[in-house]
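Researcher: Good morning. I'm working through a list of sequences from a screen, and I'd like to move beyond sequence-only analysis. For each chain I'm collecting a predicted structure so we can compare shapes side by side. This is the next one on the list. No need for commentary yet; just the structure.
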Amino acid sequence: MGILKGKVAVVTGSTSGIGLAYARAFAGAGANIVLNGMGAPADVEKERSAVESDFGVKAVYSPADMAKPNEIAELVALGEKTFGSVDVLVNNAGVQHVAPIEEFPIDKWNAIIAINLSSAFHTIRAAVPGMKRRGWGRIITTASAHSQVASPFKSAYVAAKHGIAGLTKTVALELARSKITCNCISPGYVWTPLVEKQIPNTMKARNMDRDQVINDVLLAAQPTKEFVTVEQVASLALFLCGEGAAQITGANLSIDGGWTAA
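Model: Good morning. Structure tokens for this chain:
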């Protein structure tokens, strides 16, 4: 029997990349899933139906915009209405923009703070009352090595991820006696669509070609010189849902090939 049998997991930003890996890992452990994210309807439906057919669980999809608090509340409510609870909440939705601070578009700053930081506040705020009533919960947020260290040209992203680390600690302290843990996972560079899409902007900002960006920027800080895989990140998240992790709360867990050890 899977460790999440009978539980319900809401995963934001879960139609691809790390988020989809989380959803599939939780489904493999027996959880019903609420997917959320962007993508062509046919592609989203393909992934949703695959979660059900591959793991024998139920999965629903919400197109909630993670920049809109009312839609975020509706996302959490969908899990409770459809399945009766939200036991595992994973904040994974994220966007990125790379530019020098003096050229950084204000609308990009606002969007990154809203989606990468404020959305986690709104989901947690909506999910905690139900978790408290049931006396159990797991809250996990995808932070980043950039929650601990900075890189040039990523002012909004670094600010948001540092904020996630602080939010995680605060929520963990508030819920310490409620059997609800709150942690964040800080990957280094994971090969995902988000990382791939930022390569052209980084090429422009640093006057480099594609291979130089991959080897001299993306993997420069990771001593292993390898990308983290989405499956590795999902495995850590699944561990945090188990009884063995019941006393891990308020933690910022690195999975970054040694990046932040330096």
